[in-house]
Amino acid sequence: LHLELLSAPELSLYYVGFDVTRPPFDDADVRLAFCHAVDRERIVKVLFKNTVGMAGGVLPAGLPGYDEDLHPYEYDPALARELLTKSSYGSAEALPPVTITVSGYANQIPDYIAAVILDWKQNLGVEVSVRQLEPEVFLYYLEDERDQAFAMGWIADYPSPHNFLGTLFSTGESNNISGYSNPALEDLLVRAAAENDVEARLALYREAERVVVADAPCLPLMYGSNQMLVKPYVSGFVPNPLGVPDLTTVSVNRP
């Protein structure tokens, strides 16, 4: 079937979010420590066999405004431990208990989340517990029932940087589960929305992304992809990065 396989990038982001409104992730140094302690490249190569892309920032590759030069949170356990020591907590032992909320049933933890938790344990000495919400209610209850961290994914509703930077990180947005708020980000988003010049607008969005990355309200893990099988007698099919197939150009020519 490999001859029929079609793989295409998806405008999506999978990430671990931090509740920035309460300990220990109310401290940016703790958030950065947890980010630098995770080997995201290994997760992509070993667990996903390179079928997804390692995330740079929060804007996925292929989206207008994507910054290919943005490579935050390099895997650096020594730096991670240094940041934790520098934080207001001073050490892993001084941190309050950390739990991550995930979607799933009966202790079926996604492999990539298990890998993240293992890296936190091995590199920071932090034991992270897992609490599951059933998939049917996960998105509805997550905001009210989230723990200190949570596993989340987002697929673009429309191909604009605002659908990630604004929707996920702007103050008061319903999908801003982290509770993140930064006046500098709000100013850049307002200016970008009012800018008529395309390149100038995208430059503002790239600047906004760097503000978010510096504050680390989340750890971006990977950009998704779509895999599908297309028969040789099907023509005109073009994969859609939003994950919604357009069949208006498709024709079937069976022999």
Shape: globular
Note the gap between the termini.
Answer: 19 Å
Q: Largest beta sheet, briefly?
A: 6 strands, mixed
| Proportion of beta-strand residues | 15-25%
* Low confidence ranges: none
Number of strands: 8
Structural class of the secondary structure composition? alpha/beta
Cα gyration radius (Å): 19 Å
Q: In sequence order, what are the helices and strands, one letter per element?
A: EHHEHEHEHEHHHEEE
Percent range for helical residues?
A: 25-40%
Mean pLDDT rating: 94
Strand order of the largest sheet: 2-6-1-5-3-4
What's the total helix number? 8
What's the quick description here?
The chain has 255 residues and is of the alpha/beta class. Helix content is 34%, strand content 20%.
Properties at a glance:
alpha/beta, two-stranded antiparallel sheet, 20% strand, six-stranded mixed beta sheet, globular, 8 helices, 255 residues
Notes on the structure:
This protein has 8 helices and 8 strands. It is globular. Strands 2-6-1-5-3-4 form a 6-stranded mixed sheet. Strands 7-8 form a two-stranded antiparallel ribbon. The model has no long low-confidence stretch (mean pLDDT 94). 34% of the residues lie in helices and 20% in strands. It is α/β, with parallel strands linked by helices.
